[in-house]
């Protein structure tokens, strides 16, 4: 069974920075996509950033220039570095993994989420 565990959330003042981490573990044959989403109170979950393939990164317009996604394959970890955080970035941040457990078994899973609160 594959699991995702996020960490790194917290309370930060406007203009501050945080780095989220998502560690994936379990039987993974290959990864299609991995990325970060967020959900603010009363709003739908929205895409933040991701790897649509192994080498390409992609960002929502609202975070371009402020957020950076990166990965360390040796640690099975994906990071989201967030700079110049603003109150509108307040949300629960979720890691998402689209993968093959075998050559034929494809799955999509979510982590449990980590809270990011931007407030003075």
Give a written overview of the molecule.
By secondary structure, the chain is mainly β. The radius of gyration is 14 Å and the shape is elongated. It contains no helices and 11 strands. A hairpin with a 5-residue loop joins strand 9 (91-100) and strand 10 (106-110). The strands form 2 sheets. Strands 2, 4, 5, 6, 9, 10 and 11 form a 7-stranded mixed beta sheet that branches. It has a 4-stranded antiparallel beta sheet with strand order 1-3-8-7, with no helix packed on it. It has strands spanning 3-7, 10-12, 18-25, 30-39, 46-51, 58-59, 67-72, 77-82, 91-100, 106-110, 114-118. The mean pLDDT is 96. It is 0% helix and 55% strand.
Keyword list:
120 residues, mainly beta, 7-stranded mixed β-sheet, 4-stranded antiparallel β-sheet, elongated
Number of E-state strands: 11
- What is the straight-line distance between the termini? 40 Å
Helix content: under 10%
Structural category is mainly beta
């Amino acid at each position: 069974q594959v699991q995702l565990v996020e960490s790194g959330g917290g309370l930060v003042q406007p203009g501050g920075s945080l780095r989220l981490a998502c560690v994936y573990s379990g039987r993974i044959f290959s990864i299609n996509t991995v990325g970060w989403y967020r959900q603010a109170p009363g709003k739908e979950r929205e895409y933040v950033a991701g790897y649509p393939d192994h080498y390409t990164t992609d960002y929502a317009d609202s975070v371009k220039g402020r957020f950076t996604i990166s990965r360390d394959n040796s640690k099975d970890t994906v990071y989201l570095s967030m700079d110049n955080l603003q109150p509108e970035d307040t949300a629960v941040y979720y890691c998402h993994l689209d993968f093959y457990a075998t050559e034929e078994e494809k799955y999509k899973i979510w982590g449990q989420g980590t809270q990011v609160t931007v407030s003075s």
